[in-house]
Amino acid sequence: MSEEKQRKTFAIISHPDAGKTTLTEKVLLLGGSIRSAGTVKGKKSGQFATSDWMDIEKQRGISVTSSVMQLEYENVQINILDTPGHQDFSEDTYRTLTAVDTAVMVIDSVKGIEAQTLKLFKVCRMRGIPILTFINKLDREGKEPLDLLAEIEETLEMDTYPMNWPIGTGKRLKGIYNLSDDTVDVFSEEAEERQIVPYSEVESLETYEREALEEDKMLLEEAGNDFSLEQIQAGEMTPVFFGSALANFGVQSFLDQFVQLAAPPKPRKASGRWISPDQQQFSGFIFKIQANMNPNHRDRIAFLRVCSGSFERGMEVTLSRTGKKMKMNQSHSFFASDRETVNRAMPGDIVGLYDSGNFQVGDTLIDRGEKIKYEEMPQFPPEQFAKVTAKNAMKHKQYHKGIEQLVQEGTIQLYKTPYFEDYILGAVGELQFQVFEHRMKQEYNVDLEFVHMSHELARWVTKGDVSDLVSDHRKMLVNDQQGRAVLLFENDFALRWFQDKNPEIELSTGWEIL
Ligand code: G4P
Which GO terms are recorded in the biological process aspect for this UniProt protein (predicted)? Predict the structure, then answer.
C-alpha cells in the first residue's frame, strides 16, 4: 500500500454478540478487501465454548489473518485490529488498544452498554483514545435513541454527538436522518431500493414519523452538544452512528465519516518524551505475540506497531530492552484472507514479524540513534490466581520453557513467591487458565497441576516495605515478572483491613483506573 496515504488505525470493541464481526465484514466489503462476507473469522470469538477456543487455537491460520486487516477507502489506508470478544481475554484487548489511534465501540441497541465491556470502554476513555460509536441492530426494537445517548454520557462521562438519527426502529424502521447534510438514508429490505434523499423530498414518511423526527431534532438542537472534531479526537466526545450491520444499513455513512473523524497517528510517549510520527528515526513497539502459527514449528509472530520513521524489510533494528541487533527479513502485512510480504510500513501500520523467541510484549524496536523505550504496557489486574506445578517433575525443563514463552506472549501473568519461588498464575478469567493448560500440554507436552487460590485482588506495592509480611489465605506476598512486590488479597475486606493496619504502605492497582 502507498506510503503517502493517511493511516487510520483502529480496533472495534464490543460486548460479544453486539455485532463486531458483522460490522467488520461489511466494512471490509465496502473497502473491497474481501469478496464475500463470512470469511473474516472461522468462529465468532464471543460465543465459543472452551472446546471451540481450542479449535481456534488449532486453526491459527484463520484467527491470525483476522488479527489485523487492511483496506483502502477514500484514499485512506485503514488498519483494523481485531480484539477477542470474550471477557476472559480482555487483557489481550487492552494491549491491542495501546496500538490503535481510534476505537470503534459497537453497542447493541436492544441491550445498551453491557457491564462486561464497560471496563474496556473506560480504558479508552481514560487513555484519551477517540471513540466512535456504532449503535447496531436498528432493525430490532431497541432502546430509545435518546436513552442510549444518555446511557453513554452517564456511564462513560463523555459527550455524545449523534451523526445520524433513526426514523423508527425494528419493523417500523424507515431510515436514518443525516444531521450533517439534512438527508435521509431511506431503508428498504432490498438493498438496491435504498437511496439517499434530501429530507424534504422523502415521500415514504407518515405524518407521525415526521413529527417524531422534528421533535427529536429540536431536542437535539436545544439540549444536545455542539459538534467538535477537536473534542472527538481528544476522546472527550463520541460521534454516534445508528445502523444495522446485518442489513448493511448505515455502514456506508459510518465508513464515510469514519475516514474523516478517526484520529491519525499521534505522537507517543517514549523514555519520558513525545515521539512524533514524522520523526526520521524508525521506532515501534510489540503489542501482541501470537504463537503456533504452524504447529510443526514453534514459530511465533510478533505484531509491531510502527510509531515513527519508516519500517523497511531487510533493515537492521535494535531491540531496546537488550540492545540486540536484528535484521528484519521476514515481515508481513495482513489482509483479510492473505498475508503479504511487507516492504515498507509507515507510522500507524502494523507489521507481523517472525519471531524465534526474541521478543516480549511491550518491546520497543528502533533503527539507529538514541535508544528509546515506549512506555511499559500497564498490566491488567488479574482476578483469579492459581498455584501451578508440573505433574511430572522430570519434565521441569519443558515446564519452565513453556511457562517462560507463554508469559512472554502475554497469555497469562506469572508471579513467584519470595524464597521458595513457587509459581502463581494470574488471569482475568477461567478460560485463560484452560487455554494455558491446553497449550502447555499440546506445545510443551507438560501436564499441569493447578491449585486455585481464594485471592481475587492484586495490588502493586508502590511505597513501604512488605518483606516481613506473613502470607495467609487473606493476603499473600508475591513478586511479578519485573521483581516488583505485589500483594494478593482475598477480597475488598481483606484489602481494607490491611490498609487500615498499614497506612504507611501504598498500593496501586497497576492499572490507573480500577
Ligand atoms: P460479535 O462479533 O460482536 O460477537 O457479533 P456478531 O457480528 O457475530 O453478531 C452476533 C449476532 O448478531 C449474529 O447472529 C449476527 O447475525 C447478529 N447481528 C449482527 N448485526 C445485526 C443487526 O444489525 N441486526 C440484527 N438483527 N442482528 C445482527 P447469530 O444468530 O448469533 O449468528 P448468525 O448465525 O446469524 O451468524
Answer: regulation of translational termination
Interface predicted TM-score of the whole assembly (ipTM), two decimals = 0.97
Ligand 1: distance of its center to the CA of 423 in Å? 41
The alpha carbon of 137 and the centre of ligand 1 are apart by a number of angstroms equal to 9
Q: What is the largest CA-CA distance in the chain?
A: 79
- Residue among 469, 428, 434, 412 at smallest CA distance from 123: 428
> Cβ contacts of residue 389 below 8 Å, gap of 6+?
423, 448, 449
Report which listed range, 120-129, 143-152, 183-192, is most confident.
143-152
**Residue 112 shares a structural domain with residue 89:** yes
Is the same domain home to 459 and 319?
A: no
46 in contact with ligand 1, CB cutoff 6 A: yes
Q: Which percentage of the chain shows pLDDT scores above 90?
A: 57
Task: Report whether residue 137 contacts ligand 1, using a CB cutoff of 6 Å.
Answer: yes
Is residue 239 a known part of a binding site?
no
Q: For position 173, what pLDDT does the model report? A: 94
Q: Note down the domain range covering 282.
A: 268-366
Q: Please check whether residues 30 and 93 belong to one and the same domain.
A: yes
400 touches ligand 1 (CB under 6 Å): no
Mean pLDDT of all residues in 355-362: 87
Return the H-helix or E-strand segment holding 16.
Answer: none
Number of domains into which the chain is organized: 3
* Grid coordinates belonging to 320: 531496546
Whole-number mean pLDDT of the chain?
Answer: 86
Based on the domain organization, do 110 and 247 belong to the same domain? yes
Residue 493 domain flag: yes
pTM to 2 decimal places:
0.86
For ligand 1, pick from 20, 29, 44, 114 the residue to mutate: most ligand atoms within 8 Å of CB: 44
Check if 140 has its Cβ closer than 6 Å to any atom of ligand 1: yes
Phi, psi torsion values for 159, nearest 5 degrees: -75, 155
Residue minimizing CA distance to atom 35 of ligand 1: 246
Query: Are residues 152 and 19 located together in one domain of the fold?
Result: yes
> Is residue 17 in contact with ligand 1, taking CB distance under 6 Å?
yes
Residue 310 in any domain: the answer is: yes
Last residue of a domain, one of 244, 261, 278: 261
User: How far is residue 120's CA from residue 117's CA, in Å, rounded to a whole number?
Assistant: 5
- With H, G, I as helix, E, B as strand and everything else as coil, classify residue 160: strand
For residues 439 and 487, membership in a common domain is answered with yes
Report the separation in Å between the CA atom of 375 and the middle of ligand 1, taken as the mean of its atom positions: 37
Q: Consult the annotation and say whether 82 binds a ligand.
A: yes
Report whether pLDDT(400) > 90.
Answer: yes
185 within domain boundaries:
no
Is residue 292 marked as binding?
no
CATH code assigned at 485: 3.30.70.3280
Binned at pLDDT 50, 70 and 90, residue 65 comes out as very low
